[in-house]
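Hi all, posting the design record for the shared folder.

TITLE: backbone redesign
STEP: 1 of 1
STRUCTURE INPUT:
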């Protein structure tokens, strides 16, 4: 009986953990603008509020404010699109 319960717990834990996404740090996102853009865009699309989304959001703000040419404009445009969606929704 105990072995069955233990086996069930181990298998259940493995299944649950296999569905988890790897969480990357805010510092990592600040060093990877393309991945930040992709993750943050996906978070906005799905309405996700995970740690990855929060860290990508913070990095996206940094890129929009101080990013290199090309990168800065890409993130500024993303924030402008989101602002326009919110305005259309509330307006």
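Okay, here is what came back for every position:
SEQUENCE:
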């Amino acid at each position: 009986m105990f072995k069955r319960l233990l086996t069930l717990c181990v298998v259940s834990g493995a299944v649950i953990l296999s569905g988890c996404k790897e969480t990357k740090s805010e510092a990592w996102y600040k060093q990877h603008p393309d991945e930040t853009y992709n993750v943050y865009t996906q978070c906005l699309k799905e309405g996700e509020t995970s740690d990855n989304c929060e860290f990508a959001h913070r990095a996206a703000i940094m890129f929009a404010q101080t990013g290199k040419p090309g990168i800065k404009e890409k993130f500024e445009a993303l924030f402008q699109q989101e602002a326009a969606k919110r305005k259309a929704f509330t307006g």
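COMMENT: Residues 23-90 form one domain.
Let me know if anyone wants the other runs.
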